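As a warm-up, study this chain.
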Amino acid sequence: LDSYRGSVKDFVNFNAKQDAELLHKAMKGIGTDEDTILMLLTSRSNNQRQEIKAAYKKAHGKDLVSALKSELGGLFETLVVALMTPPISYDASQLHKALKGAGTDDDVLIEILASRTCAQIKDIIKVYKKECGGKLEKDITGDTSGHFQKLLVILLQGSRDEGVDEDRIEKDAKELFAAGEGKVGTDVEKFINILGNRSHEHLRLVFDAYKNLSGNDIEDSIEGETTGNLENLMLAVVKCAKSVPAYFAESLNGSMRRAGTDDQTLMRIMVSRSETDMLDIRACFKKMYGASLYNTIQDDTAGDYGKALLYLCGGKD
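Now compare it with the structure written out below.
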């Protein structure tokens, strides 16, 4: 099982009933034992947390998440609720939150739709309909416009080509060059079509061919040719094609180490990558920024919230 790259694994001698009782005790009486709660929940996998939830309801006749919410507050509460949510439901709820209300949180749409696999996107759409009561595509098209909307909708199809099409590598690179640097104005449709539909393996080869052709990285061209949320989305798609862990390392770095921490982004990434590729993200972070992700989180966060994030990080590098 060495191929597993998450920081949170199944707890070996797992007993859902016992865990439910430990949590019950931690919340009983005066004061709450936050340490027990955070240590227990961060050392169980999401599937195991769902079993604990079921065991708790069976023993106590009430919802564990509601019980936790009534005992906790602030960022720590938000983090605990995120940990208790199944991953696909969590993505769906984050998208729903980003779309409803005044204004749209484009960064959340960009992060999730650029980084999730085709299979995950298909599942998110199903769960979104069931749990958020709407069609994700309809909600996105209602809240976005222009080329930004078009690329989001293409990504929402979750149907990238598979594998590498050798005959198309050079052709795609030339088309991208002709659509951007090679002309006045930009043929954004071409970019959207290629970036949205080719496989990640294929795109990596196209980007190499593009660099040979134009002398520039594709990112530089995108930055020179587009602006705003379209630019951000296209860059996210390019970065995820190159390396999803490096994309998240960069996002984590951006969420910390500056005036004020973007806790929503920090939390979302730590929770959603803890059982996916956190070990790779940590390695990329160290390589890119010369610091360990663990120490960076430690410097940037505090309290039970900070402690829980450190457990999710899983170690110093």
